[in-house]
Design a protein that fits this description.
Layout lengths: L5 E6 L14 E2 L2 E2 H9 L7 E7 L5 H9 L4 E4 L6 H12 L3 E6 L7 H13 L5 E4 L13 E5 H10 L3 H5 L3 H4 L9 E4 L17 H17 L8 H10 L1 H7 L13 E7 L7 H17 L2 E7 L13 E4 L10 E7 L5 H10 E7 L11 E3 L7 H4 L4 E2 L21 E6 L12 H9 L3 E6 L17 E4 L14 E5 L2 H8 L4 E4 L7 H10 L4 E2 L2 H13 L8 H7 L2 H12 L1 E6 L3 E11 L2 E6 L5 E4 L4 H16 L3 H7 L1 H19 L5 E6 L5 H8 L2 E7 L2 H9 L4 E3 L4 H5 L4 E7 L8 H9 L2 E12 L4 H10 L13 E2 L2 H10 L3 E6 L5 H5 L8 H21 L1 H13 L5 E7 L6
Helix pairs in contact: 3-5, 8-10, 9-10, 11-19, 22-23, 22-30, 30-31
Length: 881
């Protein structure tokens, strides 16, 4: 037998818009790419490894690294965005039997799993693709960054990758577009450990790099430098210590079909303006990268100087804005000492949206967002929609928690700014040494433009003067207390949970802002150096108790995420799919499994990306009622009396509109266990149902109902006649193309007939009130089940577009009222069952005694956009002439 060969191609370019030159970043003394390559070389089944990059000046250092470590590298001279052809050029030169593609930014890639996949390929004739065995319940493996194909199937994918999107993403022609499909796929079963947790292990952002550095550092503290970080050990580490997960769990990966967005941050740094603006800007840039997946550039006005982590961003120093080139972006964010009309006008020339930090400059054309990292703004600005302020608008970064070193003395830090313009070091240093030298240990941080602190007597033991401090905000948690001049550092301390005595000798805070802070935290706000010592003494007497800071800290640390969300609210999200087409609109909710947009094309909110029909078919045919709603079938029997009121009212309304008929017919799409058809049968309707789950359909048939198993599609519709009424209860939220399903349903309605549609009434005013009351997440967003999110208006518009006339709207009991009254059923099934029972009791009691009042109540709620369901009654026009 001829031996088959496996070629591994590692894709790597240094041009990342979120983390430039990430492949060269250091991991315990070695570049990230080198760590990845050393892992791959432990495979006994990979014959050749080639790094595929592009031939240009920016990527030359990557080529140099490969040559230095004797790693074969190919520098592609074609279109830099055509990754498929770059890899294909390597494949055509080597002529392997199998192609293993590995993304060059995952230094925890698991060779044991790769070898298992290769073994499966080598032992299986005519296999085209080897994949990991799909997991139930939507779970996924922790693995990232590799694919294995036969050379023949690779050629087929490469030849058909003509569209730019398919050229930029490996195997998108197969996985996303569906243009090419393999005829023979083999699957590899893995240890359950690999699916025990979901966490990103590729390095795309600064937070990802911090995570990877922490994991590598932990390993090499316990193992020799010649070892390779064990992947299973790393998974166990994440299971045992959630602090590692927290480092980058918030990072959002841009979806393959989602249009990339960009932000340009313009700021200043230097002796006169200090580093506060730059520090704050980098926090904003990091948030835009990690929470929004935005590409980020930073322009810094001033003379170049070393600044913590600035080199990890796509940043340039400029003398003035007039010198700036390559400045176009979707958003430009200005963080300058004095923002002028000219700055805003310049930003308008180069971006669609403009953001101003810490200043309100209306100008000839105002900015789109004014962000104040302060709990205070002037009264005339506070009510403006474009103005954001509050404790949760602070912009402080707490990337990597510092470890506090236990000691006999409390340890503190003094922060007087990059230039100590108030000359605190000339007098306060010795004053502190005299009063507290024997009690505490202290670090005095001397800024790059500041004079050294003056100690007229011997400097106390354990007191240090620190210069060239990098990334101080990430080390603040190691301190018991702080002393700060008013500015960014003060809020960084609060965000780190460190009580900081604050003084404002230069009156940088507005009088009203200072008074607000004094009222909020009187133990910390000092009026003079004498007051600093008094308040520090009191703080030490109380053992630096910081319990009173916790509410402020909880809000402060939300600032970066809040800022990122406000940027998302400015700019539409755009998503393109070969099957479903283009979808774009305002992002209204972000979830780890997808986002919700207010779609301009569809006219309602929905998830992106949308799952394939194959995924939905599997879920609803095999899993929904068996796993997700296993007790739902029995509940439909137990709740018969309540369902009789719920569905009986819908049928009664339809009967009123349709008039008298000897025989009324109804089609129930998405029948479930058959509750609606049971009620219809009792009212002498002739009913037919269709339900994708055979489990639920069989249950309905056992109760004497005519229900077919299947999805309602054109094939089923062709076998049916027309009906007086078509009913769809909580169906449209589950399907990827609700307008297409609705149009098909309308074709089954007789002229003059009715259609009744109910969907969850989501993002409604009561839900929004609960979010504000409880600071809660949008609990009704469930990506695994609900793809679409309607309200009354969007549902009625959908029905109108299908050619129907709206007759009426109604709803049912607004369950959110329980939450507003303090009964939190979210995630608590026992409380949820009690609330559901109480709402059923209410409905039955009112329906039995005053049915007209029940109907009027729910119609009134519906007219105000309230109620848990949006129920709409529509009529098909009579045929003309």
């Amino acid at each position: 037998m001829v031996e088959q060969t496996v070629l591994c191609v590692v894709g790597a370019r240094l041009n990342s818009s979120r983390l430039p030159k990430k492949h060269l970043l250091d991991l315990e003394g070695k570049p990230l790419l080198q760590c990845l390559l050393e892992r791959l070389k432990t495979s006994s089944l990979i014959d050749d490894i080639v790094v595929a990059t592009t031939r240009d000046a920016f990527n030359q250092s990557l080529v140099d690294l490969c040559e230095k470590i004797a790693q074969p590298v190919f520098a592609y001279e074609g279109d830099v965005n055509n990754l498929v052809d770059r890899v294909d050029t390597v494949v055509r030169r080597h002529k392997p039997d199998f192609v293993l593609y590995v993304c060059g930014d995952c230094p925890l890639v698991d060779v044991e799993t790769i070898d298992a996949m290769i073994s499966k390929a080598l032992e299986t004739p005519k296999v085209q693709v080897v994949e990991l065995m799909p997991l139930p319940d939507g779970k996924s493996y922790i693995h990232e960054g590799f694919d294995l194909f036969s050379a023949a199937f690779w050629r087929e994918m490469s030849e058909n990758s003509i569209a730019p999107f398919n050229q930029e993403h490996i195997a998108s022609i197969y996985r996303h577009s569906g243009v090419v499909k393999p005829t023979h796929v083999e699957y590899v079963e893995l240890d359950q450990l690999y699916s025990a947790i979901e966490h990103r292990i590729s390095v795309d952002t600064l937070a990802d790099y911090d995570f990877m550095r922490a994991v590598y550092k932990k390993w090499y503290r316990q193992h020799g430098p010649e070892t390779i970080v064990d992947f299973k050990w790393a998974i166990s580490l994440l299971q045992d210590d959630p602090a590692y997960l927290a480092i980058n769990s918030h990072v959002r990966q841009r979806k393959a079909a989602e249009k990339g967005r960009s932000v340009l941050f313009v700021t200043q740094a230097g002796a006169e303006v200090g580093f506060g603006h730059l520090s704050r800007t980098l926090t904003c840039a990091k948030a835009a990268q990690e929470y929004n997946s935005y590409g980020v550039k930073v322009l810094v006005e001033g003379k170049p100087i070393s600044f913590s982590r600035l080199d990890l961003f796509n940043a340039r120093w400029i003398e003035s804005l007039q010198d700036a080139t390559d400045v176009s972006a979707d958003i430009i964010c200005l963080d300058l000492k004095n923002i002028t009309d000219e700055h805003i006008a310049w930003a308008r020339e180069h971006a669609s949206y403009v953001v101003c930090l810490d200043q309100y400059v209306e100008g000839l054309e105002p900015a789109d967002l004014y962000w104040f990292p302060s709990p205070y703004v002037q009264a005339e600005l506070a009510s403006r929609e474009e103005v954001k302020f509050g404790w949760d608008c602070m912009l402080v970064d707490q990337s990597i928690p510092a470890l506090k070193v236990a000691g006999l003395k409390k340890r503190g830090v003094v922060l007087t700014g990059s230039g100590d313009h108030a000359k605190m070091g000339a007098t306060l240093a010795q004053r502190l040494a005299t009063d507290f030298g024997a009690q505490v240990e202290l670090d005095w941080v001397q800024g790059p433009f500041a004079d050294a602190p003056v100690f007229t007597q011997e400097q106390p033991d354990g007191w240090r003067v620190l210069t060239q401090v990098q990334g101080l905000s990430n080390h603040l948690q190691a301190y018991d207390f702080a002393i700060c001049v008013f500015g960014v550092s003060f809020f960084e301390c609060l965000g780190a949970g460190v009580p900081a005595v604050c003084i404002d000798p230069l009156h940088m805070a507005k009088p009203e802002e200072w008074q607000l802070l004094k009222n909020a935290m009187p133990p910390l706000m000092a009026e003079s150096q004498d007051d600093v010592c008094l308040k520090l003494n009191k703080l030490l007497e109380n053992q630096c108790d910081k319990e009173f800071l916790e509410p402020y800290q909880m809000d402060i640390v939300k600032g970066p995420a809040h800022f990122a969300a406000s940027l998302r609210a400015l700019i539409p999200v755009s998503w393109q799919d070969a099957f479903y087409g283009e979808h774009s609109g305002k992002l209204v909710y972000q979830h780890v499994h997808g986002d919700v947009i207010e779609c301009e094309q569809c006219g309602f909110k929905h998830m992106i990306p949308l799952p394939s029909y194959e995924q939905l078919k599997t879920f609803y045919e095999e899993e929904f009622y068996q796993a997700e709603k296993e007790d739902y079938l029995q509940k439909s029997v137990d709740e018969w009396l309540w369902l009789d009121f719920e569905f009986g009212d819908r049928l009664a309304r339809a009967e009123q509109s349709l008039g008298s008929h000897s025989e009324r017919t109804v089609l129930d799409i998405g029948t479930g266990p058959g509750g609606f058809l049971q009620v219809a049968k009792a009212r002498n309707w002739i009913g037919l149902g269709i339900e994708p789950s055979d489990h639920a359909a069989s249950f309905a048939r056992q109760n004497g109902l005519e229900v077919h198993t299947g999805f309602f599609d054109a094939e089923w519709a062709a076998q049916m006649g027309q009906f007086d009424l078509v009913h769809m209860s909580e169906v449209l939220e589950h399907v990827p193309e609700p307008s297409k399903l609705l149009n098909l349903a309308v074709s089954k309605v007789k002229p003059g007939g009715m259609i009744v549609v109910s969907v969850p009434n989501d993002f409604n005013p009561l839900q929004e009130a609960v979010i504000r009351q409880d600071n809660a997440e949008s609990w009704w967003v469930v990506p695994d089940h609900h793809l679409n999110y309607f309200d009354f208006e969007s549902l009625e518009n959908l029905l109108r577009h299908a050619g129907l006339n709206i007759v009426n709207r109604s709803t049912n009991f607004p369950m959110e009222m329980f939450l507003l009254m303090g009964e939190n059923y979210r995630g608590a099934s026992d409380i949820g069952k009690k609330c559901h029972k109480r709402r059923m009791t209410f409905d039955i009691s009112l329906g039995q005694r005053k049915p007209e009042a029940r109907r009027a109540l729910y119609e009134s709620l519906a007219s105000a956009g309230l109620g848990r369901l949006a129920i709409v009654y529509a009529q098909k026009p009579m045929e003309q002439g």
